[in-house]
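Worked problem 6 (solution included).
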Amino acid sequence: PISLAWQSPQRGLALTVFNNTAVAGTILRSETVALPNVTHDSRRPFSATLTGTISVERDYLYNFSCFFGDAVLGYVHVDGHLVCQKGTNGAHGPTPPSVRSTEYDNPLPVLSSTAWPIRLVVVHHGSASRPTDSFGVRITRAPERGGRPAGGGEGGGKGAAWLGGGTLRKEAWLEGALSPALPEAEAQRDAMQARLSSGWAPWYDMSYTKLVRLPEGSALALMLCDSGASGADAPRCLEEARVDWGPGGQGDVTIRLGAHAYDRSYLQLYLATATCNVSIEVGGGDELLAIVEVVAGCDGTELVLAGSSVWYRVHEVSAAAQTLSFTPIGDGLRSSVVHATQPSKGSALLLPRRVEALPHLRFDLAGGGSVGFSSKAPLPAARIRATLRAAWEAEQARYGAYGEHAEVKMAVQAGAMWNVVYNPLESVIAPVIRGNPWGWDPAVLSDDWPYVLFDWDTHFAGYMLSLDAAGKELGYSVLIQVVKAKSAEGFVPNGYAPTRKSTHSQPPVGSKVLLEMYRRYRDLWLVELLLDDLLDWSGWFLEERTLPPLNMTALGGDDMQAARYESGLDDSPMYDGHFFAVTDNKTGYGLMQMYDVGMASMVAMSDACLAELADAAGRADTAKVLRARSADARAKIAAHLWDEQSGIFVNRLATGRFRRRITPTSFYPMLSGIATVGRAESMLRGWLLNASRFCITPKGDFAGNDDTCYWGLPSVSADDPAFPPLGYWRGYVWGPMALLTYWGLSHEAYLDVPLVTTARAALCKQMGALFLTQWRAHRHVCENFSPWRNATECTGMRFYHWGALAGFIGLLDAGFYQRPRQEAAAFT
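Solution. The predicted structure is:
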C-alpha cells in the first residue's frame, strides 16, 4: 500500500527561508505556518519555500490565488500543476488552436489522488525601502457543479474574482486540511532531484556552451568571437550555441557533439565557424575542468569566457588578469574561482557591447594553441589535458562493456544527455532539443526560461537515460516531470510549456516506460509517485476517446488537425481527408470517426502495464479492473480491426469501411499479444519483410531493397501513393516507430516464433546502421531519417533525442536493459 507518512499530527505548511537567492544552503528560518501566508524581512535578499500536503475532497474544485509581493520570482505547483508564476513570462496573447493557457489548470478538480503536494517558491532580491514583504497562496474551494470556473494567477486573477476577491481570509476547512509533510514518494522525489541538481554542467537550455554550477546559478559562457560570418565590421560572439534553431547570424556555425558522461565527468564537442574550428572538452561535477583547443584556422577569432548568474540567483562576478570569480550572495553556497592557464589578452577585435559589459577573459586564438581553465586551483594546460584524458578513457571503458555495441551506446547516451537541462520550474528535464523554437512561450522575460516538453518524446528520453544505473535517476526525473505536466482533466498533453498546454494528448507510453524501469530497478516509490497520474490518464482515454458503436479508441481534440496531432503522427496519410465530428457541443471537442489501430493498441498495452504496476503497489482491485479493460480492448481489436484482404490490422471508419493506408502502427497489436501467431507471421511476410513495403530484409543486410526504401521501416508503406514524394510522417523513418515495432516483436507471445525472432534482429540491425550513418558523418541524432540509401543528412531536426531510439533497440535486443550483462553491470 502507498505510504501515508504525510499524515502528520501537525497542521499547516513547512516554511523554509534561505539566506540567499538559490533556494539552498544556509537556512535562516524554519517553522510550520498554520496558513500559507508568510511575512518576512525583505531588506536583504532571500529565497523561501512553503511545502506540504493538502487533503482534498471529491466533488469540489480547488482554487489557488497566489501573491508574491516584490519577489522577482515566484511559482506554485499543486499536485504537479503550475498554478501560478511570476518573473518568468510576461503577458501573452490568445493561444493558438489546440493549445490553451496553463491557467486552465486553476481551479483543479479532484481525480484519483486526494492528497496533493504543494510547493511554493519565491526569490526576493531585497528592498531598502520596504522592511517586510508577504507572499503565499489563498486556497479556496467550491462545489463542482459540472462547470469549470476560470482560474487565476499571481495577484488574485480570475480565480479570486470567482471566489469573491478581497484579502486573504481564513477558510474554515483549510486549517485541518494542510500537513507540513509531503507524501513519502514526493519527499523521495525532492531528495533525488536535489542530488541531481548539483555541480557544473551545460544545464542551460539555450546553449551547449554555457556552463552552470548548481544550485548556485554561477554561469560561465564559452564564446567564439569574430567579425561576423560575412567579414563585415559587425562584431559577433557565439553567446549561445545550439545545433537546431540557433540564434540569428550563425549560418556558418556547425556543432559536432561527442561523448557525454552521465555524471558529467567528461563531455566533448567541436564548435566551428567558417574560419575557426575548436574542440571543447569539459569535466564537470563539483569542480570544473575544461580545455579549448584549436583544430583549424581561428585567425581573427577570440575565445571569450564571460561570467554571469542565471535564474535570479544573485552573484558578485569579477574578472582579474587570469581569473573569473563567482561569489553568490548569502550564506551556505559555494564560491568559484575559474583560473585560466594564461593571462587574458585579446586582439584588436571589438566585442559586442553586451559581451563587453560582462566580466570576461579573452584569448586570441590566432596561430592555434589551447586555453584551459579550472575551478579548483591554477593548473597548467598539460595537467588539465591529462586529467580530462583519464576521464575520457574511463568513459570509454564504460562504453567498452557493451562490446560490439559500444559505439551505439556512446551515441545513444549522447543523444539523451546533451538534451538534459535544468530549469527551476521543473528541476532536471530533457526537452527534445535545446531551445523552444515552436513559440510555446511567446513572452519569456529572458533566455533563462524557454523550454517545452512533448509527451511521448520525453517519456522515451527517460527510458533511454535509465539504461544504466548511473543514469537511472536522470531517467526518473525526466519521466516524473513529463507525467506531472498532466492537464486538469488528467491526460498528459501533447505539448507543455510554463504558459501553455495542448488540448489533446498523445500515445500513452508512460506506463510501459515506468513498468520497464520498475522491472529493472524495483524502486517502488517511483510507482507510488506516478500511479495515480497514469490511472487518471487511462481513465481519461476511456471516458473521452471511446467511439461508438464498437466502443473502441479513437483520436480526438478540438478539430481534425488536433486529432492528427494526438496520434503523434501529425500529417500521416492515414488521416488524409476529414472524418471528424463534434461530440461535446459545450466544449466543441470531438473525435475522428475512425477506430485507430495504433492508439487503440497502445491504450490496451498501457492498461496491461498499469495492472502490473497496480499489483506492485498493493492495489489488487484496481489491477483487476485494468486487466479486464485491457482484455476487452484487445478482443475488440482482434475482432474488428483485422483486415483479411490486406493480411494486416487496419484502421476502420465508424461506418465499417477499412481505411487501407498502412503504416508501422498496423504492427502495434503485437504490443500486447493481440495478433495470433498466424496473423503475426502474415503481417511480417506480407508487410514488414516485404521489399516493396517496409523493406526489412531477413538478414538485416538490405539485400534486394530499392535505394528509395533502403533503410527500411518508412512511416508509410513504400507502395502507398504518399511514399514517393516523401514527407514528415509520410515516408521518413522514425525512432519511436522503430521502438514500438520492436516492443511488439518482443512480446512474450512471440518469443518462440522463428519468423518473429528473425524480423526483430533484422529490424535492430537496419535501424542501428541507419542511426550510425548520421552519427558518424555529422554527430547528429535525427528527429527523423530519409529512407533513401544516398541521404546525407537528417530530414528533420539534427539533435533530437528520440532519434537515438533507432540505435537503442539494438541495446535492448542484446539484453542490456531487461537482463544486464555481467560485464556491463560492473560499470553501472
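Discussion: Residues 1-6, 147-168, 820-828 have pLDDT under 50 and may be disordered.
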